[in-house]
Amino acid sequence: MNKVPLLSCIALTLVLVANGAPTLPPPTTVLQYLLRDLMEVQNKLKIVSERMKKYELYIPSNTSSIENLQCFTKELNPVAGALKYESKDAQNIQEYINNINVTVNSLMGPEITQCHYASKMRIEGFFKEFVSVCQRFMH
Predict the structure, then answer these.
(1) Is residue 97 within 8 Å of residue 80, measured between CB atoms?
(2) Three-class SS of residue 18?
(3) CB distance 58 to 120 below 8 Å
(4) What is the pTM of this model?
């Protein structure tokens, strides 16, 4: 008799593990995950080569809505590719960049936002701007 509830509990646990959590965290929590990953990339970029520190990225001209976060992530893929040659810690940075892309896509969905860019900024300034935009959306 005790085996049936135990087996049911095990089966339910396996289903949850296989399919993931049933609900998504609220957007503020997702933004907190995004902010954490952005700050990790910022810290790791301190040890990249001088040439990589001069790498310039485009800053979106409009950062008034959360959808504009996709414009920042569009700039990240070339960074991930260039890091292979410029940093000993490239794989960790690439994982964080991948997490950032996944997190922003979970907020926005698959739709691509039309992006307009204001200016170029060195990589360190780009991530500072990205962090400040995320912090603004959290308040």
Answers:
(1) yes
(2) helix
(3) yes
(4) 0.72
CB atoms within 10 A of CB 74: 17
Report CA 19 to chain centroid distance, whole Å: 22
* 117 within 8 A of 57, measured Cβ to Cβ: no
- pLDDT tens figures, 46-91: 877 788 888 899 999 988 888 888 889 888 888 877 777 766 777 8
Q: Dihedral, CA atoms, 74, 92, 131, 79, nearest 10 degrees?
A: -30
Compute the C-alpha angle 127/133/135, nearest 5°.
100
Nearest to 73 by CA among 26, 127, 124, 29: 127
Secondary structure (3-state) at 117: strand
Amino acid code (one letter) for 133: V
**Residues facing residue 121 across a β-bridge:** 57
Residues 31, 130 contacting (CB under 8 angstroms): no
Q: Are 60 and 71 in contact (CB under 8 A)?
A: yes
What pLDDT is recorded for position 58? 92
Beta strands in 5-131 (DSSP E): 56-60, 117-122
Which CATH architecture is the domain 25-138 placed in? Up-down Bundle (1.20)
Tokens of 61: 């001209």
